[in-house]
Fold this sequence. Notes:
This protein is α/β, with parallel strands linked by helices. It is built from 10 helices and 11 strands.
Amino acid sequence: MLVLSTSQGELYHMDSTKFAKEALKDGLRGSVDLILTSPPYPLNQKKKYGNLQGEAYKKWFTELAPLYKELLSPKGSIVMEIGNAWEPHRPVQSLLHLESLLGFVKAADLRLVQEFICYNPSKLPSPAQWVTVNRIRTVDSYTHIWWMAKDDFPKADNTKVLRPYSKSMQQLLKRGTYNAGGRPSEHHISTNGFLKDHGGSIAHNLLELEPLDNHRDPRLPHNVLSFSNTNSNDPFMRACRAKGITPHPARMHMGVADFFIQFLTAPSDLVFDPFAGSGTTLYAAEKAARRWIGCELSEEYIAQAKIRLKDPALKEAKKKAVKVKSTTKKKTRA
């Protein structure tokens, strides 16, 4: 059932598997440029937002792959954020998330294009029993983000997600000289290979949600919002507090959604989130002038997505995105 629409997107209240099957029948086959989502994690304990466990999870997750492959455009991508799983009542990690990933890739003959690590230094200590009580494990502070595609060369442009140059690189460009020549690694550094200003450095596959070093700014890509998931002052969090709503406990970081939408799509491309939750992916797509479709089974989280998509800041952000799109077209024609 359609519960919200804008000029760019539609949000549906329904099961994600059912929606994908109906979407294939309704003409969306081969139309989606990016499936960006954070599915329920393969946890070995039940969470409020719902999740299967063990072999049931792996079977469910694997069976999604052929459906998503059929929805993808020829050069489209699937990007999924999946956290680690731990064996119940044991201080050892489960292989379930890795087995599920392998099953997903093999079930649809997908390419695993690249792995990203999303590091969150503000993440609460977990698993609590082994980290804070027994103190025999360290904090599990990162999640995996898996980029998959049905082609070796999916649409991607890392110039759209350049990081600000480090202070040392800024000084090098200003100085115009550096230590060229041979290195112990047997690499040979040319005399002018690092003197061209590209507007920033190429992004790494480690996404730091906060600075790793407190003495420098976080070097997130220019187009990525650099704020922590603990941020309590953004419009969404303020609106939830005002309405007495407890926000979704496993929200994707807005900067992550921004990063992959900028990196893997162009304006007017179609982004699909089959587990929309509180609408992070949908918000990022709307802001970046991408078309979007989302579906979510929980009425509680649909209500939160509606709050997020009514953020007044969206209107101004969309104007800027459209302006950038227009400028790009003029440069292309020139």
